[in-house]
Amino acid sequence: MTNKIKVEHLDFYYGNFQALKDINMDIHQNKITALIGPSGCGKSTFIKTMNRMFDLIDGTKATGSISFDGTELLDKNLDVVQLRKRIGMVFQKPNPFPKSIEENVLYGVKRHGDVPKSEWDELVKTSLKKASLWTEVEHKLNQSAFSLSGGQQQRLCIARALATKPEVLLMDEPTSALDPIATAKIEELLEELKKEYTVIIVTHSMQQAARISDYTGFFLNGELIEFGLTKTVFSNPTDKRTEDYITGRFG
Amino acid sequence: MGKTSKRRRLAQRLFLNKFFEYLFLAAILLSISVLLILVGDVLRKGLGSLDWSFITSMPSSRPERAGILPALLGTLWVIGLTALISIPVGVGTAIYLEEYANKRSWFFRIMNINIGNLAGVPSIVYGILGLTVFVQLLKIGPTILAGALTLSLLILPVIIVSSVEAIKAVPSSVKEGSYALGVSRWRTITGVILPMALPGILTGSILALSRAMGEAAPLIMVGAVGFVTFLPDGILDRYTLLPMLIYNWTSRPQDAFAQIAAAGIIVMMILLLITNITAILLRRKTQNRVE
Ligand SMILES: Nc1ncnc2c1ncn2[C@@H]1O[C@H](COP(=O)(O)OP(=O)(O)OP(=O)(O)O)[C@@H](O)[C@H]1O
Ligand SMILES: [Mg+2]
């Protein structure tokens, strides 16, 4: 069992407000880790520390350590551009760029300039295939991304993240804006993706966490209350609060 | 009893509704008809003198031979140069304020408040500033460049404010999507922010420029002349402008000058119409591309 990411004593602040308190967590390679917990408990904040998206918000501060294959992610001198290529992110609401489907997939690589032009077509194809969107769009790659359905847009956003060849995928409630069929498609896709990638997914659906994840972490008020194998967390939680949340007694 | 009073109140409300509807309609009709009368008057007086030679001739003390060429070229030179100066500086400032500046810093707050205030400063004040700084201190003299710099100062606040608004309107989810792919700030700006903000930026800039086109007061301060008989061919030449030439003509007693002044006004209106239509078309075109 290899650790892809090791989080130790992570504290996080928005100005004076402490949103994460002493988080410790091991993210295992090629596994799906689900993060659950009531609204406002810090799940989004936590995954935003791993690709340093919090850099974009003035007045934020993270202390402690997040080690990614031995690299310290909280290092001030870290090249976040390189980091975000290796740790991709998919958001709650599909956010395609106002460009064609093909341009969306190529958006990152074109701006990084590290893939030769001759390989672009192939990259578009493999990325869309991995996101299981290829057969639905192969004849309309030049159409606007907005012509796709919400579920297709979300898979396009996954393809777009995969095109920069990441090792880890962060997903913040990727199915909360989708209907059950589109959700099922993405869950199926995640099963495939974990063979190649390490996935961290925030979800509000207990069933989803139980269905798809290997590990589960339960957050409450900025603290990681419980973390372990999904099976154990759901069938035999050690903390009373975890049990209450999972059984729907609060949250 | 209660029923009839309820019904009466309803009737009263409906009457008031109608009353105000007609009142506002009358207000609109009044302002439109004043405008129509003005335009009609200008057209009636001016159309007779408006022909190709009016546009391609020099001004003259003989109204039947007078034309607007130096003023038309002067206006185009000054406005063109103003656009070249003010749009890059204005859009650059807006990008800095929205995407780079720390929004909590006192510098940002002071800038933000003051740019809004600057948009309300009377244009003559910019004329005085232009005279002191560009004409005298920097020794640019009463040239097209000095005029364009002065007008640029005048419309910069408007361009900055409308560009900031356009950039703000770009959804943060799209920006985050770009950053999350590891795309740098500058490439995010050129890749998604500017393309999405462009229609708003262009519309704001063109409307600001068309306002500048009608300005005469600040340019009188920095040395535009009312009557010239040579054509400008460089940014360090002296110049005249359409509004100034028109003013010069209207202040003469002969009726014939009033007529060619009206013809000059028609040319100005056509120019304004062209710039505004350009703004609309550009907006349409970029919007289509974005969708
Ligand atoms: N930009 C911000 N500035 C200040 N406080 C913030 C900011 N973003 C989040 N917070 C606060 O941090 C805490 C954690 O927020 P976070 O978004 O991580 O919660 P979450 O678990 O993702 O909730 P949800 O399930 O509703 O998405 C909340 O109390 C929230 O108010
Ligand atoms: Mg969240």
Structure description:
The complex is a heterodimer of chains A (251) and B (291). Chain A has helices at 43-50, 80-86, 101-112, 120-130, 134-137, 150-163, 180-193, 206-212, 230-235, 240-246; strands at 3-14, 17-28, 32-36, 60-68, 71-72, 87-90, 168-172, 198-202, 215-220, 223-229. With 251 residues, chain A is α/β, with parallel strands linked by helices. Chain A has one domain: Rossmann fold (3-Layer(aba) Sandwich), CATH 3.40.50. A 6-stranded mixed sheet of chain A has the order 6-7-8-3-9-10, with helices on both faces. In chain A, helix 3 packs parallel to helix 6 and helix 6 (150-163) runs parallel beside helix 7 (180-193). Chain A starts with a strand and ends in a 5-residue tail after the last helix. Chain B has 291 residues and is mainly α. Chain B folds into 2 domains: 2-49; 54-290, MetI-like (MetI-like fold). Chain B has helices spanning 2-46, 52-56, 69-100, 106-118, 123-137, 144-168, 172-180, 185-213, 217-221, 242-250, 255-290. The N and C termini of chain B lie far apart (60 Å). The model of chain B has no long low-confidence stretch (mean pLDDT 90). Chains A and B meet through helix 2, helix 3 and helix 6 of A and helix 7 and helix 8 of B. The structure holds adenosine-5'-triphosphate and magnesium ion. Adenosine-5'-triphosphate binds next to strand 2 and helix 1 of chain A.
